[in-house]
From TrEMBL:
InterPro entries: Peroxiredoxin_BCP/PrxQ (IPR050924), Redoxin (IPR013740), Thioredoxin-like_sf (IPR036249), Thioredoxin_domain (IPR013766). The lineage of its organism: Bacteria, Pseudomonadati, Pseudomonadota, Alphaproteobacteria, Hyphomicrobiales. Residues 28-193 form the Thioredoxin domain. This is Alkyl hydroperoxide reductase subunit C-like protein. The keyword Transmembrane does not apply.
């Protein structure tokens, strides 16, 4: 069984939403050593991105909406906020291609709780784990760009390519979110090791 396709989710008119601008907040990440912090994964494991070998694709997003739960007021007016489900579904649909192009593993990460992450991973039928940084330890250690929405600290959307514990490449800002997986795939094809 598969989840909603990217095509089913592409009824979003990205041109009507607030587009994120490069504010330089991720400029320090390229070349950075990844913090040695264990993150709760939806498969029940604890993942330390610093300890993984090979290329890791880590897409970072604000929050995945839950069915029946309203998004925060003004969500569509926050630059780059909308699009977490289409982004996750695109990484799901491109997962095999990403691995074939040289990614050793793929993860998604947000500040949502492990239970919220598990719900999204199951509902969207993701073939990879989502990671929870609900306590903001990883975000703080890495200096990830964030925003406060409805009294919650959320991460700004970006994708990191990590190679043997070091950030090799940064996609920031990411827009539109549903095309990010294809952009990462093209980057991997050009930068095969």
């Amino acid at each position: 069984m598969s989840g909603p396709s990217v095509h089913e989710l592409q009824n979003v008119d990205w041109s009507r939403l607030a587009r994120p601008e490069d504010d330089g907040a991720a400029g320090h990440l390229r070349g950075a050593t990844v913090a040695e912090i264990a993150l709760a994964a939806t498969d029940g494991s604890a993942v330390s991105l610093a300890s993984l070998t090979g290329r890791t694709v880590l897409y970072i997003y604000p929050m995945t909406a839950k069915p029946g739960v309203a998004l925060p007021d003004g969500w569509d007016d926050i630059p780059g906020a909308r699009g977490c489900t289409p982004q996750s579904c695109a990484f799901r649909d491109h997962h095999a291609d990403l691995l074939h192009a040289g990614a050793a593993q793929v993860f998604g990460l947000s500040t949502q709780t492990p239970d919220d992450q598990r719900e999204a991973a199951n509902r969207l039928h993701l073939p990879f784990a989502l990671l929870s940084d609900a306590d903001l330890r990883f975000a703080t250690a890495m200096g990830l760009p964030s925003m406060t929405v409805a009294d919650s600290v959320l991460l700004r959307r970006m994708t990191l390519i990590i190679f043997d514990g070091r950030v090799e490449h940064v996609f920031y800002p990411v827009w539109p979110p549903d095309r990010n997986a294809a952009e990462v795939l093209e980057w991997l094809k050009v930068h095969r090791t």
